[in-house]
């Protein structure tokens, strides 16, 4: 298949593109290197991809360039590009969220109208669309009441996908990811920050009491869900929860990371950040039934993989000059 991956230099996009190439597909990757975190990390994410003859990269902003040409011969589109991050989405920076998460999605869907070979657009949505749900685990039927501007922007993108399916038969599917982790996780995300602090002997900043719970999803499981969402017939217009299948207390994650690293963790408790959800937990029965999705990677194994990545990133030996 000829695939477009937007946000290809990011955490999820780069892993997804690698899997598509490994499966024998051709990938065009697009990214504008938003400066939310360092470009050097994103360049490293796509360094191996750039060596593949079946990977092509375009540095472009989805809002600044005509997209019809980009989509023209595409069969699968994986729309991962977004301004991520819950805490940063308040105030004037919301403009970046509306541009990258809402306008860019609408432009992509418009361009999809002119793409003759398009078989599927998979949209990366988020558990943030639920906010603080009254009943856990959430199903896809749970009322969506985001508690952050980021969540509002991701929900708007999701609604646009559903609209373009209903009105124009653009074949969209939305996946609501629940906290993705693993190598290349964004540096603002909890496990990355925790692992880095443990490895470098710094205190870990925790917003809240560390008793909050999350449903964590290992990156390869999210990638698999994307491919299944592209391949499975008759799921257009649908949304699916994509989660790791078990709910974990944040404090336990910190303890596991410290054990795996063979180091102590010091925790600096800070007030809960506005927009942060207390608990997340997903019912993944729909994805299991219709997509055949079943998370494969246990939390401890996934944490070990992420820790190895962080060690290489932050503890790499400084080369000594030759004497
Ligand atoms: N990581 C998670 O836990 C998580 C959870 C829920 C949903 N998501 C969603 O998954 C997707 C990927 O997240 P991630 O963690 O890999 O984020 P990321 O920030 O690592 O990757 C997103 C990439 O999109 C690019 N981008 C943003 N706006 C763009 C634009 N207008 N044009 C071109 N490129 C643009 C950025 O430069 C970045 O490299 C996002 O849509 C995010 O909202 C992620």
How would you characterize the overall build of this protein?
The chain has 323 residues and is an alpha/beta fold. It has a domain at 2-178 and 218-243 and 281-296: Rossmann fold (3-Layer(aba) Sandwich), CATH 3.40.50.720. It has 11 helices and 13 strands. The termini are far apart. The model has no long low-confidence stretch (mean pLDDT 95). It binds nicotinamide-adenine-dinucleotide. Nicotinamide-adenine-dinucleotide binds next to helix 1, strand 2, helix 5 and strand 5.
Strand and helix map with partners:
Layout: E1 2-6, H1 11-22, E2 26-31, H2 39-45, H3 47-50, E3 55-59, H4 68-71, E4 76-79, H5 94-112, E5 120-126, H6 149-168, E6 172-177, E7 180-181, H7 190-200, E8 204-207, E9 213-215, E10 217-218, H8 219-231, E11 239-242, E12 247-249, H9 250-261, E13 267-270, H10 285-291, H11 299-314
Parallel strand pairs: 1-2, 1-4, 2-3, 4-5, 5-6, 6-11, 7-10, 8-13
Antiparallel strand pairs: 9-12
Helix pairs in contact: 1-8, 5-6, 7-9, 7-11, 9-11
The structure holds nicotinamide-adenine-dinucleotide (NAD).
Residues 6-7, 9-13, 30-34, 36, 42, 61-63, 80-84, 100, 104, 124, 126, 154, 177, 179-180, 186 line the site of nicotinamide-adenine-dinucleotide.
């Amino acid at each position: 298949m000829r695939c477009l991956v937007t946000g290809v230099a990011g955490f999820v996009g780069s892993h997804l593109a690698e899997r598509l190439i490994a499966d024998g597909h051709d990938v065009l990757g697009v990214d504008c290197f938003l400066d939310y975190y360092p470009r050097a990390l994103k360049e490293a994410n796509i360094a191996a991809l750039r060596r593949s003859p079946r990977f092509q990269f375009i540095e472009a902003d989805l809002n600044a360039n005509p997209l019809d040409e980009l989509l023209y011969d595409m069969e699968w589109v994986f729309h991962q590009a977004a301004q991520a991050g819950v805490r940063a989405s308040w105030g004037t920076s919301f403009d970046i969220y509306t541009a990258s998460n809402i306008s860019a999605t609408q432009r992509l869907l418009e361009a999809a109208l002119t793409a003759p070979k398009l078989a599927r657009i998979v949209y990366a949505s988020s558990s943030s669309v639920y906010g603080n749900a009254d009943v856990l685990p959430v199903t896809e039927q749970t009322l969506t009441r985001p508690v952050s501007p980021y969540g509002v922007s991701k929900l708007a993108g999701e609604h646009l996908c559903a609209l373009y399916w209903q009105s124009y038969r653009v074949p969209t599917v939305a996946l609501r990811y629940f906290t993705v982790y693993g190598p290349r996780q964004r540096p603002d995300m909890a496990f990355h920050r925790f692992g880095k602090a443990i490895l470098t002997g710094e205190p870990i900043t925790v917003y809240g009491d560390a008793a909050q719970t999350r449903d964590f999803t290992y990156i390869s499981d999210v990638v698999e869900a994307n491919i299944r969402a592209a391949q499975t017939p008759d799921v257009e217009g649908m949304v699916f929860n994509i989660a790791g299948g078990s709910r974990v207390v944040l404090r336990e994650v910190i303890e596991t990371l410290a054990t795996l690293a063979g180091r102590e963790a010091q925790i600096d408790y800070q007030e809960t950040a506005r927009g942060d959800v207390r608990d997340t937990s997903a019912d993944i029965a729909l994805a299991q039934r219709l997509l055949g999705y079943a998370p494969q990677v246990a939390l401890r194994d996934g944490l070990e993989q992420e820790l190895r990545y962080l060690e290489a990133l932050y503890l790499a030996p400084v080369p000594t000059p030759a004497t």
